[in-house]
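Help needed: design a sequence for this.
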């Protein structure tokens, strides 16, 4: 399977919180998008890995992902090293995306920055033909390096390099987030409170999207960071 865009994130729900609107807009444009969760989120305060897997499946359905994989790396203890890079490279070569979207390089949760570094390095090494990998079909894979890697902004207030207008997809983004009933605001839950489980956090997510939207003159937006300079061919394509 090949896709246009591959979203790779540390935990199930990172994608939904940070770039679900962008994914839904890409799908409407006729693009194909797949997702990879690096961990099962097993150290989360609420829920279980099994519940989060079910929630991630529902999130993928709402976002209309072509596929969603989970690497099963250890939550909090995965590293940007040879072992983890060599595990991730075959999936990058399997999906062969033109664009990869991943975690922010600097955030409240240490896993987010580490995931960003791991994904960036694995994407580069996936383009080296001397690194040999075997695909799910048992065949030797061809090298592939994505053209662009963008990091979505998460908890920390960072200046975006560009913002995607997600106004038409805001309700879809909220639906994808709410697929994680074990994690986010749920008055019926009896589990311990966590950083993201209260109603104020949901209001924060809305405020962040409104802030990014306001920066480009729309109602809702999602901000991204690029490590390379971006160029445009047509000034009239800007909003």
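Sure. Designed sequence:
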């Amino acid at each position: 399977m090949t896709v246009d865009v591959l979203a790779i994130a540390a935990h199930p729900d990172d994608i939904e919180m940070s770039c679900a609107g962008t994914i839904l807009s890409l799908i409407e444009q006729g693009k194909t998008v797949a997702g990879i969760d690096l961990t099962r989120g097993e150290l989360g305060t609420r829920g279980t890995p099994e519940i989060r897997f079910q929630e991630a499946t529902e999130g993928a359905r709402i976002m209309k992902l072509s596929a969603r994989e989970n690497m099963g790396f250890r939550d909090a203890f995965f590293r940007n090293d040879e072992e983890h890079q060599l595990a991730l490279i075959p999936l990058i070569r399997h999906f062969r995306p033109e664009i990869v979207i991943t975690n922010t390089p600097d955030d409240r949760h240490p896993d987010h920055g580490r995931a960003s570094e791991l994904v960036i390095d694995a994407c580069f090494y996936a383009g080296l033909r001397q690194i040999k990998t075997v695909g799910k079909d048992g065949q030797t894979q061809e090298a592939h390096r994505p053209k662009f890697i963008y990091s979505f902004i998460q908890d920390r207030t960072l200046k975006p390099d560009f913002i995607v207008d997600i106004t038409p997809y805001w309700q879809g983004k909220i639906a994808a987030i709410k697929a994680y009933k074990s994690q986010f605001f749920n008055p019926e839950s009896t589990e311990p409170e966590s950083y993201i489980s209260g109603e104020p956090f949901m209001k924060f997510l809305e405020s962040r999207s409104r802030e990014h939207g306001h920066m480009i003159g729309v109602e809702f937006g999602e901000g991204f960071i690029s490590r390379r300079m971006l160029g445009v061919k047509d000034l009239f394509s800007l909003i």
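The two ends are 33 Å apart (CA to CA).
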